[in-house]
Here is the input.
Amino acid sequence: MPLVIGVRFHPATKIYFFDASGFEDLQAGESVVVETARGEEVGRAIVAPHEITDAEIISRLRPILRRATPADLSLMDHYRQKEHEALEKCRAKIQERNLPMKLVRAEYSYNGRHLVFFFTSEKRVDFRELVQDLARMFRARIELRQVGVRDEAKLLGGIGKCGLALCCSTWLPDFHPVSIKMAKQQDLPLSPMEISGACGRLLCCLAYEEDHYAETKRRLPRRGDVVDTPRGRGKVIGVNAVKESLQVELESGVIFEYLTSQPEPGEPALGPALEGDAVTRQARAGVPRTERRPATGTGRGQASRDGRKPRGERGNRAPEEPLAPPAQSQERAPGSRRSRKKRKKPSAAPQ
Here is the structure.
Protein backbone atom coordinates (compact mmCIF):
# COMPACT_ATOMS: atom_id res chain seq x y z
CA MET A 1 0.00 0.00 0.00
CA PRO A 2 1.33 3.48 -0.87
CA LEU A 3 2.43 5.89 1.84
CA VAL A 4 0.86 9.36 1.55
CA ILE A 5 0.92 12.64 3.45
CA GLY A 6 -1.70 15.43 3.54
CA VAL A 7 -0.50 18.94 2.61
CA ARG A 8 -2.38 22.25 2.75
CA PHE A 9 -1.13 25.40 0.97
CA HIS A 10 -3.37 28.06 2.52
CA PRO A 11 -5.57 28.18 5.64
CA ALA A 12 -9.12 26.88 5.24
CA THR A 13 -8.37 25.14 1.93
CA LYS A 14 -8.47 21.57 0.74
CA ILE A 15 -5.92 18.99 1.84
CA TYR A 16 -4.00 17.40 -1.03
CA PHE A 17 -2.21 14.08 -0.67
CA PHE A 18 1.30 13.43 -2.01
CA ASP A 19 3.58 10.44 -2.18
CA ALA A 20 5.58 10.32 1.04
CA SER A 21 8.13 7.73 -0.05
CA GLY A 22 11.45 8.53 1.60
CA PHE A 23 9.83 10.90 4.12
CA GLU A 24 8.42 8.42 6.63
CA ASP A 25 9.74 10.48 9.54
CA LEU A 26 7.99 13.68 8.41
CA GLN A 27 5.84 15.18 11.15
CA ALA A 28 2.62 17.17 10.89
CA GLY A 29 3.33 20.92 10.95
CA GLU A 30 6.56 20.83 8.91
CA SER A 31 6.86 22.77 5.65
CA VAL A 32 7.67 20.84 2.48
CA VAL A 33 8.29 21.61 -1.20
CA VAL A 34 6.03 19.58 -3.48
CA GLU A 35 5.37 19.34 -7.19
CA THR A 36 1.95 20.59 -8.34
CA ALA A 37 0.24 21.33 -11.65
CA ARG A 38 1.41 24.98 -11.33
CA GLY A 39 5.00 24.00 -10.56
CA GLU A 40 6.83 23.83 -7.25
CA GLU A 41 4.91 25.02 -4.19
CA VAL A 42 5.58 25.24 -0.47
CA GLY A 43 2.92 23.71 1.77
CA ARG A 44 2.44 22.66 5.35
CA ALA A 45 2.02 19.00 6.31
CA ILE A 46 -1.36 18.55 8.00
CA VAL A 47 -1.82 14.77 7.99
CA ALA A 48 1.12 12.61 9.08
CA PRO A 49 2.38 9.89 6.73
CA HIS A 50 0.03 6.91 6.60
CA GLU A 51 -0.83 4.06 4.26
CA ILE A 52 -3.93 3.92 2.06
CA THR A 53 -5.37 1.29 -0.26
CA ASP A 54 -5.12 1.42 -4.03
CA ALA A 55 -8.89 1.94 -4.29
CA GLU A 56 -8.61 5.26 -2.43
CA ILE A 57 -6.21 6.71 -5.01
CA ILE A 58 -8.14 8.88 -7.48
CA SER A 59 -5.29 10.34 -9.57
CA ARG A 60 -1.54 10.03 -9.84
CA LEU A 61 0.24 10.85 -6.61
CA ARG A 62 2.83 13.59 -7.05
CA PRO A 63 6.05 13.29 -5.04
CA ILE A 64 7.41 15.37 -2.19
CA LEU A 65 10.62 17.02 -3.41
CA ARG A 66 12.24 18.04 -0.12
CA ARG A 67 11.74 19.71 3.20
CA ALA A 68 11.44 23.49 2.96
CA THR A 69 14.62 25.29 3.98
CA PRO A 70 14.79 28.70 5.72
CA ALA A 71 15.83 30.18 2.35
CA ASP A 72 12.62 28.82 0.75
CA LEU A 73 10.46 30.29 3.51
CA SER A 74 12.23 33.66 3.29
CA LEU A 75 11.75 33.75 -0.49
CA MET A 76 8.07 32.93 -0.05
CA ASP A 77 7.60 35.81 2.42
CA HIS A 78 9.34 38.17 -0.01
CA TYR A 79 6.87 37.46 -2.80
CA ARG A 80 3.91 37.52 -0.42
CA GLN A 81 4.72 41.16 0.29
CA LYS A 82 4.76 41.96 -3.44
CA GLU A 83 1.24 40.62 -4.05
CA HIS A 84 -0.45 43.91 -3.15
CA GLU A 85 1.72 45.83 -5.61
CA ALA A 86 0.95 43.30 -8.36
CA LEU A 87 -2.74 43.65 -7.61
CA GLU A 88 -2.69 47.44 -8.10
CA LYS A 89 -0.76 47.20 -11.38
CA CYS A 90 -3.19 44.63 -12.73
CA ARG A 91 -6.16 46.84 -11.82
CA ALA A 92 -4.63 49.71 -13.74
CA LYS A 93 -4.27 47.52 -16.82
CA ILE A 94 -7.90 46.37 -16.49
CA GLN A 95 -9.11 49.99 -16.39
CA GLU A 96 -6.88 50.84 -19.33
CA ARG A 97 -8.48 48.12 -21.48
CA ASN A 98 -11.96 48.78 -20.01
CA LEU A 99 -12.65 45.14 -19.17
CA PRO A 100 -15.73 44.18 -17.06
CA MET A 101 -13.68 42.49 -14.33
CA LYS A 102 -13.45 42.92 -10.57
CA LEU A 103 -10.02 41.92 -9.32
CA VAL A 104 -10.07 40.12 -5.97
CA ARG A 105 -6.61 38.84 -5.13
CA ALA A 106 -3.12 38.18 -6.49
CA GLU A 107 -1.11 35.13 -5.43
CA TYR A 108 2.57 34.41 -6.12
CA SER A 109 4.22 31.02 -5.99
CA TYR A 110 6.96 30.71 -3.40
CA ASN A 111 9.74 31.36 -5.98
CA GLY A 112 7.90 34.07 -7.97
CA ARG A 113 7.73 32.07 -11.20
CA HIS A 114 3.95 31.78 -11.23
CA LEU A 115 1.40 34.56 -10.57
CA VAL A 116 -2.35 33.97 -10.32
CA PHE A 117 -4.99 36.72 -10.38
CA PHE A 118 -8.47 35.93 -9.07
CA PHE A 119 -11.38 38.00 -10.41
CA THR A 120 -15.17 38.02 -10.59
CA SER A 121 -17.35 38.97 -13.53
CA GLU A 122 -20.99 38.63 -14.48
CA LYS A 123 -20.16 37.51 -18.01
CA ARG A 124 -17.39 35.87 -19.98
CA VAL A 125 -14.31 38.07 -20.48
CA ASP A 126 -11.74 37.93 -23.27
CA PHE A 127 -8.50 38.70 -21.43
CA ARG A 128 -5.93 37.27 -23.85
CA GLU A 129 -4.33 40.65 -24.54
CA LEU A 130 -4.34 41.44 -20.82
CA VAL A 131 -2.39 38.25 -20.09
CA GLN A 132 0.28 39.27 -22.60
CA ASP A 133 0.63 42.70 -21.01
CA LEU A 134 0.93 41.19 -17.51
CA ALA A 135 3.50 38.60 -18.64
CA ARG A 136 5.75 41.34 -20.04
CA MET A 137 5.29 43.42 -16.88
CA PHE A 138 5.95 40.77 -14.19
CA ARG A 139 8.26 38.38 -16.12
CA ALA A 140 6.35 35.38 -14.79
CA ARG A 141 3.77 32.86 -15.87
CA ILE A 142 0.37 34.59 -15.59
CA GLU A 143 -2.93 32.88 -14.85
CA LEU A 144 -6.32 34.64 -14.61
CA ARG A 145 -8.91 32.62 -12.72
CA GLN A 146 -12.59 33.57 -12.52
CA VAL A 147 -14.30 32.75 -9.22
CA GLY A 148 -17.80 33.11 -7.79
CA VAL A 149 -19.12 35.30 -5.02
CA ARG A 150 -18.60 32.62 -2.36
CA ASP A 151 -14.96 32.20 -3.35
CA GLU A 152 -14.61 35.98 -3.32
CA ALA A 153 -15.72 36.13 0.30
CA LYS A 154 -13.35 33.27 1.13
CA LEU A 155 -10.38 35.09 -0.42
CA LEU A 156 -11.15 38.52 1.05
CA GLY A 157 -12.42 37.41 4.48
CA GLY A 158 -14.66 39.48 6.73
CA ILE A 159 -17.06 39.41 9.69
CA GLY A 160 -20.30 37.46 9.63
CA LYS A 161 -23.69 38.21 11.19
CA CYS A 162 -22.62 36.34 14.32
CA GLY A 163 -19.77 38.81 14.93
CA LEU A 164 -17.05 36.24 14.21
CA ALA A 165 -14.76 35.82 11.21
CA LEU A 166 -16.31 34.12 8.20
CA CYS A 167 -16.30 30.34 8.41
CA CYS A 168 -15.14 30.00 4.79
CA SER A 169 -12.03 32.10 5.44
CA THR A 170 -11.06 30.53 8.78
CA TRP A 171 -11.82 26.80 8.85
CA LEU A 172 -14.41 25.72 6.23
CA PRO A 173 -12.50 24.02 3.38
CA ASP A 174 -15.43 23.28 1.04
CA PHE A 175 -18.78 24.87 0.27
CA HIS A 176 -21.75 22.62 0.98
CA PRO A 177 -25.06 22.99 -0.89
CA VAL A 178 -27.51 25.24 0.98
CA SER A 179 -31.20 25.53 0.01
CA ILE A 180 -34.17 27.60 1.11
CA LYS A 181 -35.72 24.37 2.39
CA MET A 182 -33.22 24.39 5.26
CA ALA A 183 -34.43 27.83 6.38
CA LYS A 184 -38.05 26.63 6.29
CA GLN A 185 -37.11 23.51 8.26
CA GLN A 186 -35.60 25.70 11.01
CA ASP A 187 -38.59 28.10 11.09
CA LEU A 188 -36.42 31.06 10.09
CA PRO A 189 -37.73 34.20 8.38
CA LEU A 190 -37.48 33.88 4.61
CA SER A 191 -36.32 37.46 4.15
CA PRO A 192 -33.12 37.58 2.07
CA MET A 193 -31.63 40.11 4.49
CA GLU A 194 -32.03 37.67 7.39
CA ILE A 195 -30.68 34.44 5.87
CA SER A 196 -27.99 35.77 3.50
CA GLY A 197 -24.30 36.02 4.32
CA ALA A 198 -21.61 38.53 3.38
CA CYS A 199 -21.39 37.00 -0.11
CA GLY A 200 -25.09 37.59 -0.79
CA ARG A 201 -25.90 33.88 -0.86
CA LEU A 202 -27.64 31.73 1.75
CA LEU A 203 -25.76 31.35 5.03
CA CYS A 204 -23.47 28.32 5.12
CA CYS A 205 -24.40 27.77 8.79
CA LEU A 206 -27.93 26.78 7.74
CA ALA A 207 -26.51 23.36 6.90
CA TYR A 208 -24.78 22.85 10.26
CA GLU A 209 -27.91 21.89 12.26
CA GLU A 210 -30.10 20.66 9.42
CA ASP A 211 -29.80 17.00 10.49
CA HIS A 212 -30.84 17.84 14.06
CA TYR A 213 -33.92 19.78 12.95
CA ALA A 214 -34.96 17.08 10.48
CA GLU A 215 -34.56 14.27 13.03
CA THR A 216 -36.33 16.18 15.83
CA LYS A 217 -39.29 17.22 13.71
CA ARG A 218 -39.60 13.68 12.39
CA ARG A 219 -40.11 12.40 15.95
CA LEU A 220 -42.33 15.20 17.23
CA PRO A 221 -45.96 15.74 16.21
CA ARG A 222 -46.70 18.35 13.59
CA ARG A 223 -48.75 21.50 13.90
CA GLY A 224 -52.44 20.74 13.86
CA ASP A 225 -52.08 17.21 15.31
CA VAL A 226 -54.25 16.26 18.29
CA VAL A 227 -52.23 14.79 21.17
CA ASP A 228 -52.96 13.46 24.65
CA THR A 229 -51.07 15.17 27.47
CA PRO A 230 -51.18 14.77 31.26
CA ARG A 231 -53.46 17.81 31.29
CA GLY A 232 -55.81 16.40 28.71
CA ARG A 233 -56.28 16.29 24.99
CA GLY A 234 -55.12 19.28 22.99
CA LYS A 235 -54.01 20.55 19.60
CA VAL A 236 -50.38 21.25 18.70
CA ILE A 237 -50.00 24.89 17.65
CA GLY A 238 -46.20 25.20 17.81
CA VAL A 239 -43.05 23.03 17.69
CA ASN A 240 -39.65 24.09 19.10
CA ALA A 241 -36.97 21.78 17.70
CA VAL A 242 -34.17 23.37 19.77
CA LYS A 243 -35.87 22.72 23.14
CA GLU A 244 -37.75 19.69 21.76
CA SER A 245 -40.99 21.06 23.16
CA LEU A 246 -44.58 21.40 21.98
CA GLN A 247 -46.99 24.26 22.42
CA VAL A 248 -50.36 22.64 23.03
CA GLU A 249 -53.80 24.26 23.17
CA LEU A 250 -56.21 22.27 25.33
CA GLU A 251 -59.91 21.92 24.66
CA SER A 252 -60.55 24.41 27.46
CA GLY A 253 -58.53 27.04 25.58
CA VAL A 254 -55.46 26.95 27.87
CA ILE A 255 -52.09 27.01 26.07
CA PHE A 256 -49.02 25.49 27.73
CA GLU A 257 -45.58 24.27 26.73
CA TYR A 258 -44.82 20.57 27.04
CA LEU A 259 -41.19 19.40 27.12
CA THR A 260 -40.91 16.05 25.38
CA SER A 261 -37.29 15.28 26.31
CA GLN A 262 -36.14 14.55 29.82
CA PRO A 263 -34.76 17.62 31.67
CA GLU A 264 -31.22 17.72 32.95
CA PRO A 265 -30.59 16.97 36.64
CA GLY A 266 -31.50 20.00 38.71
CA GLU A 267 -33.27 21.71 35.81
CA PRO A 268 -37.00 22.43 36.23
CA ALA A 269 -39.23 20.74 33.68
CA LEU A 270 -41.72 22.61 31.59
CA GLY A 271 -45.30 21.72 30.82
CA PRO A 272 -47.01 19.29 33.20
CA ALA A 273 -44.31 19.55 35.89
CA LEU A 274 -44.98 23.27 36.42
CA GLU A 275 -48.71 23.50 36.89
CA GLY A 276 -50.08 26.81 35.65
CA ASP A 277 -46.72 28.35 34.66
CA ALA A 278 -46.92 28.28 30.88
CA VAL A 279 -50.48 29.37 30.22
CA THR A 280 -52.01 32.24 28.36
CA ARG A 281 -52.65 35.65 29.87
CA GLN A 282 -56.35 35.01 29.93
CA ALA A 283 -55.91 31.82 31.92
CA ARG A 284 -53.55 33.54 34.37
CA ALA A 285 -56.12 36.28 34.92
CA GLY A 286 -58.83 33.71 35.52
CA VAL A 287 -60.73 34.57 32.34
CA PRO A 288 -61.25 31.35 30.39
CA ARG A 289 -61.53 31.46 26.66
CA THR A 290 -64.97 31.03 25.12
CA GLU A 291 -65.65 27.39 24.43
CA ARG A 292 -67.23 26.73 21.12
CA ARG A 293 -69.64 23.82 20.83
CA PRO A 294 -69.34 21.53 17.88
CA ALA A 295 -71.75 22.14 15.07
CA THR A 296 -74.92 20.06 15.00
CA GLY A 297 -76.58 18.54 12.00
CA THR A 298 -78.38 21.77 11.12
CA GLY A 299 -75.32 23.97 11.67
CA ARG A 300 -77.13 26.09 14.29
CA GLY A 301 -75.52 24.74 17.49
CA GLN A 302 -72.42 26.98 17.63
CA ALA A 303 -72.36 29.98 19.94
CA SER A 304 -71.82 33.32 18.30
CA ARG A 305 -68.83 35.50 19.14
CA ASP A 306 -70.91 38.11 20.96
CA GLY A 307 -72.26 35.51 23.40
CA ARG A 308 -75.86 35.56 22.13
CA LYS A 309 -77.77 32.41 21.45
CA PRO A 310 -78.10 31.19 17.91
CA ARG A 311 -81.27 31.86 16.05
CA GLY A 312 -82.70 28.43 16.71
CA GLU A 313 -82.11 28.64 20.50
CA ARG A 314 -83.89 31.86 21.42
CA GLY A 315 -87.07 30.08 22.45
CA ASN A 316 -87.71 27.89 25.47
CA ARG A 317 -85.53 25.07 24.18
CA ALA A 318 -82.42 24.39 26.28
CA PRO A 319 -79.08 25.16 24.59
CA GLU A 320 -77.83 21.59 25.05
CA GLU A 321 -80.82 20.14 23.23
CA PRO A 322 -80.15 19.74 19.53
CA LEU A 323 -82.60 21.22 17.15
CA ALA A 324 -85.07 18.85 15.61
CA PRO A 325 -85.12 18.84 11.85
CA PRO A 326 -88.31 20.25 10.33
CA ALA A 327 -90.96 17.71 9.47
CA GLN A 328 -91.77 16.97 5.90
CA SER A 329 -95.47 17.85 6.25
CA GLN A 330 -95.66 20.42 8.98
CA GLU A 331 -98.87 22.36 9.40
CA ARG A 332 -98.67 26.02 10.15
CA ALA A 333 -100.75 27.76 12.75
CA PRO A 334 -104.00 29.00 11.38
CA GLY A 335 -103.17 32.56 12.40
CA SER A 336 -99.76 32.78 10.77
CA ARG A 337 -99.16 35.11 7.89
CA ARG A 338 -98.09 32.37 5.52
CA SER A 339 -101.27 30.36 6.28
CA ARG A 340 -103.52 33.26 5.45
CA LYS A 341 -104.95 32.92 2.03
CA LYS A 342 -106.58 35.59 0.05
CA ARG A 343 -110.29 35.17 0.23
CA LYS A 344 -112.14 35.72 -2.92
CA LYS A 345 -114.96 38.11 -2.73
CA PRO A 346 -118.32 36.43 -3.37
CA SER A 347 -119.49 37.15 -6.82
CA ALA A 348 -122.81 38.88 -7.17
CA ALA A 349 -125.78 36.70 -7.91
CA PRO A 350 -126.96 36.95 -11.43
CA GLN A 351 -130.02 39.04 -11.80
